[in-house]
Design brief:
- By secondary structure, the chain is an alpha+beta fold.
- It has 13 helices and four strands.
- The protein has helices at residues 2-31, 40-58, 63-81, 86-114, 135-151, 154-164, 167-194, 201-260, 270-282, 297-303, 306-323, 348-369, 388-409; strands at 287-295, 330-333, 338-344, 374-381.
- A four-stranded antiparallel beta sheet has the order 2-3-1-4, with helices on both faces.
- A hairpin with a 4-residue loop joins β2 (330-333) and β3.
- α7 packs antiparallel against α8 (201-260), α10 (297-303) packs antiparallel against α11 (306-323) and α11 (306-323) runs antiparallel to α12 (348-369).
- The radius of gyration is 44 Å and the shape is rod-shaped.
């Protein structure tokens, strides 16, 4: 009687540890907690499953039948006691059965070989007189506890969480679980039907190797599914990152465009225009600079309104852009009412002819829209050895000379 009480106590203790390991793994996967779980998560399943064990023992049910009865109970405990997500609870219940059943069969086969006993000498019976009979059960439950604790550590827990996000990988793993259970059921059938009478070493070795290969095969399948899930997760992250990079590139392009192009006139800004002109200077290309100033812009703003002043600026910018060759010449807004042009590859006479055409076109447009629009400009040709600042200063002086003439002609409008 004392022996049976000790046996039952040892079984309940290892069963408690086994369920504690299951609870730690389940909770850590589901809610990012590890190592610390409420005692009831292990105590209640141990009491329930221990009662089931006694019932199955009294009913003389087979090993596979014991675990098949425990399987739905494990699911209910995970799902409703620990509040684990449904599919995770199903997977962990199946995994627990695979781990526990294969470990018990493995240790039974191993002890049968080492102690030279028949396979059936090791069973779940609490009435067994053999001191070694319960050892495989105890070792199997302890092994399960350590395996679950190992997989609950931070690194492995994170790897298994990747698996929970992959639908196809979960289906693959579920199929592997079912196959593992089928093979274990066949092994349990062999154990229960041949183990009682057969003491053949080959049968024992076959049982040992099978019980080793089944969980190892499942673990390899689990590792493969985790690796594929990680690759799938990284691929999804790459897609998201690429989309984010594309979005940022579009935003930068739009921002760059607003920085490079003057919002009101549509021509280049001062900074961008100077950079383009300096590139032409550095390439030692023949060019002429032209500084343009709008006469009477302040007068129009004060007397006709800023809306008309903006139209004045846009009209001049449009005509200046039309006289420039796209991709070769440069036109930019240099200041509030000033524009700077660079006629690349053009001589002084050609540049002056083009600016004369600009003033003629502007005079026609001024009559069409009934808006007094007049330009002052100065053209300077770059000479070898001159800097950008020197040529710009000469063009500026020419522009102010023309502006002085316009002031004399229209003192009330030109300031």
């Amino acid at each position: 009687m004392t022996k049976q009480v000790l046996l039952l106590g040892g079984y309940l203790l290892t069963l408690f540890l086994f369920h504690q390991g299951t609870a730690i793994l389940a909770v850590s996967l589901d809610r990012e907690q590890a190592n610390q779980v409420p005692w009831r998560y292990a105590l209640i399943p141990s009491a329930v499953n221990g009662t089931l064990f006694i019932f199955c023992n009294m009913a003389h049910l087979g090993l596979m039948a014991n675990w098949l009865i425990i399987l739905p109970v494990l699911y209910l405990e995970l799902r409703y006691l620990m509040h684990i997500r449904r599919w995770l609870a199903i997977g962990l219940a199946l995994e627990t059965v695979i781990c526990g059943l294969s470990a018990m069969l493995f240790y039974r086969s191993l002890l049968a070989i080492v102690l030279q006993k028949p396979l059936y000498a090791f069973d779940n019976s609490i009435h067994s007189q053999d001191i070694w009979a319960p050892v495989p059960v105890l070792l199997g439950l302890l092994s399960g506890y350590f395996v679950f604790r190992r997989y609950a550590n931070t690194r492995k827990r994170q790897s298994m969480r990747y698996l929970l996000t992959g639908g196809s990988q979960l289906r693959f793993l579920a199929a592997c679980m079912i196959l593992a259970l089928v093979f274990l059921a066949m092994q349990a059938y062999l154990y229960e039907n041949n183990g009682q009478t057969s003491d053949d070493i080959h049968t024992k070795l076959w049982s040992l190797v099978s019980c080793l290969y089944i969980p190892l095969g499942y673990l390899f399948a689990l590792r493969y599914a985790i690796q594929v899930s990680i690759l799938s997760y990284m691929s999804d992250c790459n897609v998201i990152m690429q989309q984010d990079l594309d979005r940022r590139a579009r935003e930068e392009e739009a921002l760059l465009e607003t920085i490079e192009v003057d919002e009101l006139t549509g021509v280049l800004t001062r900074l961008t225009g100077q950079q383009r002109i300096l590139e032409a200077f550095q390439a030692h290309q023949q060019l002429c600079l032209c500084m343009v100033d709008l006469d009477g812009l302040k007068y129009i703003n004060d007397h006709l309104g800023h809306k008309e002043g903006d139209r004045y600026l846009r009209t001049v910018a449009e005509i200046l852009a039309q006289c420039c060759r796209q991709g070769k010449d440069v036109v930019c807004r240099y200041g509030g009412d000033e524009f700077l042009l660079a006629f690349v590859g053009a001589g002084l006479s050609n540049a002056q002819q083009r600016m004369t055409a600009v003033t003629d076109t502007l005079a026609i447009r001024a009559k069409e829209i009934d808006l007094p629009m007049v330009l002052s400009y100065g053209v300077a040709q770059w000479e070898p050895g001159e800097s950008f600042e020197t040529v710009l200063e000469r063009a500026d002086q020419e522009m102010y000379a023309m502006k002085s003439q316009h002031k004399a002609e229209m003192p009330d409008r030109v300031r």
